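Notes, p. 3: input format for complexes.
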Amino acid sequence: MSTYILWDIDGTLIYNTPTAGALYLEAIEHVTGTRPTVPVPDPHGMTEGQLLAAILEVNELDAGRLGDVLYQLDELSREQHERGWARDACLGAADAIAAIASRGWTNALLTGNGPNRARYKLLAAGYDPEDFDWEHSYFGHQSPTRHHLTAGARSALSDHDAVIIGDTPNDGLAADSAGIPFIAVATGIYSADQLRATSALVVADDLSSGLGSILEAISASINDSTEESGNL
Ligand SMILES: [Mg+2]
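Output follows (232 residues plus magnesium ion):
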């Protein structure tokens, strides 16, 4: 049995930027010929597939073009990468990844992005993509909801322990629905107070000051699940 730490990317490993959605608009404009102008309310924590479908819908564009938009998004992400795109890694994230690996746990991804875009984002923020187990990572670009994404991860990892680390209440709800323990970091748009309303085992201000309590919470959740299976 292995322990997989499933990392969200935006707001958790990489700081959000106000222009993050520009590439979505560009991809949709390229495919449909119309640049969306109506914003989607509360997009944080949505999967990419969910958000793109919502943008198409609220702007009365052809939802049937979602696959083409996702393809175009990959193309634009690659071009952006080749132009030397840079993002900022969240405080303490690199050390947290190293600390998790040193305990014999496996770093992996659970993100609303597709795999290509996830890889470009990690590279843009100075991460080594090979520090993550891509065979046991889960991508939501084609998931209609984050619940769908976490349910897929849970069934794929049914013989293993898993913990999700994310930055939105939606990450917590999706973790809950799949029965995966959740740890929250307040490096996205939600405050620690807002995240304390979730089921999070720990709410950390960031991955630096919170690292000790995060590692303790992961250890405790693994021991809990071992005891539970011992009681069967
Ligand atoms: Mg996030």
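Residues 211-230 form the longest helix (20 residues).
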